[in-house]
Amino acid sequence: MFDLLIKNANLPDGRSGIDIAVSGGKIAAVEAGIAAEAGEVIDATGRLVSPPFVDPHFHMDATLSLGLPRMNVSGTLLEGIQLWGELRPMLTKEALVERALRYCDLAVSQGLLYIRSHVDTSDPRLVTAEAMIEVRERVKPYIDLQLVAFPQDGYYRAADGVNSLERSLDMGLDIVGGIPHFERTMEEGGQSLAALCRIAAERGLPVDIHCDETDDPMSRHIERLAAETVRFGLQGRVAGSHLTSMHSMDNYYVSKLIPLMAEAKINVIPNPLINIMLQGRHDIYPKRRGMTRVKELLEAGLNVSFGHDCVMDPWYNMGSGDMLEVGHMAIHVAQMAGIEDKKKIFECLTVNSAKTMGIEGYGIEKGTKADFVILQARDAAEALRLKANRLFVIKGGKTIAKTAPRVSALFLDGRPETVDGAAYAPKP
């Protein structure tokens, strides 16, 4: 007798006709033809059952603040930074918590159950840290939320930035962050990476750096980050987020850089939606895409995962908490439209991101957490094409969100009465 039995599921690895049995919040069996009773039975009807989506790069303290105190008229990164600087003194704990909880509701509806959020520590009040710590506790039953101490105005550049970051870690933030390309000089950027990696090593914490989020091919802080990672023995515990300057770097230099990153086991986190929107703003034509070299980094064996980064905030006035939208954009920008490419893109939204965040018990196999999403699509490629509906979102073996299938009614003589976009998938 199981708590939950999912019948006739397709899995991201290509297996089909699989049953998944759940007991005590864990997966008890994953195999075809499980003959057993269960408290609840869900027939997946040949649809994709995936582990939950994972967002390893987000800014929850800024989310849903679009229009406060005004709109970003130019739509640029620099005006977004200026806007956030205007809004920051007005932030209250209550408003921060309310907006973050609303976003978490949206995330659950999208099957997004693991999030790493950067928390701005540049304001010595640290109201952002206080608010996000409360949110982390309140959403713990349904979302695993990691918090990065992020000196958004620069570790050295911000007034009291050094002390504020240390205090935020003492308050309970989980990860050491930084933004070396926003320091006053390249030298200070490199020094900040050395200091931040030392702090992480001393405290036993991971590192996640906004690194080289620029079109400048000479912004090469990722090289220093890789070196400091090895120096402090942090291999596998360090993430380089964005890395957009790699899009513009000389190919010979990149041929040296990628092996250095692989040696340091750097986790790479591009943010396709934001990178394609904010980069290349000084270009006329040809216009650079801005996203880092995803395909080459994957081929070199680095762990690449995708972040959503922003939803309706000073930097990005779009977004819906949908990681499939992130993957959909990545396919186009990275020009990874092959069958195997799409499988890799889907892994960047799930298993790779789980590895970046160090999530234990993740996946669909016996003994893992009974957390998964049933999608209105046959397989991973179709889920990305359709940005498929999340029919069921399941946490610990219990349904926490449910969406009706997206089916349109037609009123055309001699044509079908309904249209289901998922039925248009090519025959396997």
Automatic annotation (TrEMBL):
SUPFAM superfamilies reported for this sequence: Composite domain of metallo-dependent hydrolases, Metallo-dependent hydrolases
Gene Ontology molecular function: cytosine deaminase activity
E.C. number(s) listed in UniProt: 3.5.4.1
Entry keyword annotation includes 4Fe-4S: no
Keyword terms: Hydrolase
Top-level lineage group: Bacteria
InterPro entries assigned: Amidohydro_3, Metal-dep_hydrolase_composite, Metal_Hydrolase, Metallo-hydrolase_Enzymes
Residue ranges of domain Amidohydrolase in the record: 40-399
UniProt name for this protein: Cytosine deaminase
Species per Swiss-Prot/TrEMBL record: Rhizobium aquaticum
Lineage of the organism: Bacteria, Pseudomonadati, Pseudomonadota, Alphaproteobacteria, Hyphomicrobiales
